Fold these 2 entries.
Entry 1:
Amino acid sequence: MKTMAAAGLVPAALAEDGKLDIRIVRLKLRHTWTTTMSSSDYRDTLHVHYTRDGITGIGEGAPIARYKESAASGKQALEPFAAGLVTADPWHFDKTLTELFAALKGNYAAKAAVDIAVMDWVGRRLDVPLYRYYGLDPKDAPLTTFSIGIDTPEITKQKVREAAPFPILKIKVGLDSDEATIAAVREVTGKPLRVDANEGWTDKEAAIRKIEWLAKNGVEFIEQPMPAAMLEETRWLRDRSELPIIADEAVLRTADIPKLAEAYDGVNVKLDKCGGLREAYRIIQMARALGLKTMLGCMISSSVAVTAAAHLSPLVDYADLDGNLLISNDPYRGVLVEDGTLVLPTGPGLGLEPA
Ligand code: MG
């Protein structure tokens, strides 16, 4: 892509206007966040500002440690492509991003940050909100869950009380304390629950017993009960499970979906995992075509990445788009949640405003 500018294919005036700013933003967490994978008080995400024709699109990607990504490595990997991105014809964005994705290995959070920034720019330049660009009705946006991380029963109960405005909760499990966690939640609320084991169960016989117990406790579905690599065991589980089984860590790209359809009932799509809006849209359409349930999830991030996902949410069955609600220093205001309903901003592109 650098060669496009070097070959003189781009008018100099366009090149002068183009700018790609890549920065790392440290987001502070309201509560220490614990899953089976990690525990922390802050998260660093990658923010990209893409400026053309005097209009700036904003994007964000949250690097996922499981896939050996970090904000620093994403920034470093993306920088060599900045000149090519801001000199290519902005209306050839699909071709330009496809070339970038082929040339930049891994680093899906960086890819997501660029993809979202470019699509925000496209929406702003066309003066339409992204949900309209995709032909979606914002009133079809599903309810979002609010996630409760793994903690002691006392703190779990306190978090569930604080989540009172949300009609559905997502509970993280995957440790020996799972039954105590659900029992603590049930002491406080009778709301529907969705449960995420984050690959925490490795024995299929034990997993089916846990699922039977969860089904009796008002749980709607179980997300990634077993490790992503245990596809055969997950198929065995799916054949016996009363609850739908949703893939998360197992689903990365569109090409993964046909084989996952043999072992799961649905897929959790995250822009940070797949590289942004374009690939997320393709995954959702492929999954729907194969009869799978679809879900949009997110990482802990600011309103940039969460709002981007929310613009696609009218397409999906389930949403877990609460990552921006878990931080105390969000630089932007975008999608809002009213009694669990996602309310999409109506401004052009992502529709972000300063916080
Ligand atoms: Mg998950």
Entry 2:
Amino acid sequence: MKAKSVLVKANAKINLTLDVLRKRPDGYHDMYMIMQSVDLCDDVRVSIRDGSGITAVTNRSYLPNGEDNLAYKAAREFMAVSGMSDFRVAIDIRKRIPASAGLSGGSADAAAVLKALNSMLNRPVPYSKLLKAAESVGLDAVFCFEGGTKLATGRGEVLSDLSPLPECQIVIIKPDFSASTPRIFEQIDSVPIKQHPDSAGMIAALERGSLTDVARRCFNVFENALPPRKREKIFDIKNALLSYGALGVSMSGTGSAVYGIFDKSDKAAEAYRKLGKKYEDCFLTKPTNATRH
Ligand code: C5P
């Protein structure tokens, strides 16, 4: 085999809404989420050559290399669904998306590996098999593989297309703590959810193409399940983003990243500049559309 190498951008996602409907008999939860991919991304370089085996490295020392990295798992799943394993895979990831932030950074890298491997092989794997591989890696990897604006139901892996988020600027900030996904799901089971997002209203607002109506409906049930001190930090960031002119603010996923949606690029740039001095993980980004493979 001729040695080949490709670079794929792995886009982060935010939750415009996040609702937890019920606990399932299998221990997971039925979700109702409106997800949006953004152009904040990691650079994922995937190289193949003759041989066997997988290596995965990143530029962040605290992230796992090798088998515990979702990108590694994606290469393994690709080999399983394609039936091809007579090549050596080297994955090198330049991370920008903060980890444990609710932005699906690890799943985005995994989806990028699937796209990269599929683009380099002479006999590409059918789309449905790639989605199966993504699901085996993790539920969020399915969304990351597709991207765009989607309704995610089931455990988060059942996707349907929605009208795209109107053009806007998004400032994302991750505070100095990370949220534990299993713990926040346990927490949500222990208290009744008092307020749910207006998901139907959000879908209608997307259909109308009204950024203002979308932004005011951004809502995540996990915010109220956080312990008080962490919740305060989230509310501080939300208030700061609003004070710079954000039309809507919310936490993403299981946290702890928070985003603000802006219609005016000068206001978003000012928020990014000023809040970037206070918060190390601060990003100015915008929505991206779905990619068809
Ligand atoms: O998908 P991921 O592996 O990140 O999920 C981590 C944990 O979050 C699961 O082990 C489960 O406890 C919880 N979870 C859930 N319901 C979902 C998704 C995740 O309870 N729909």
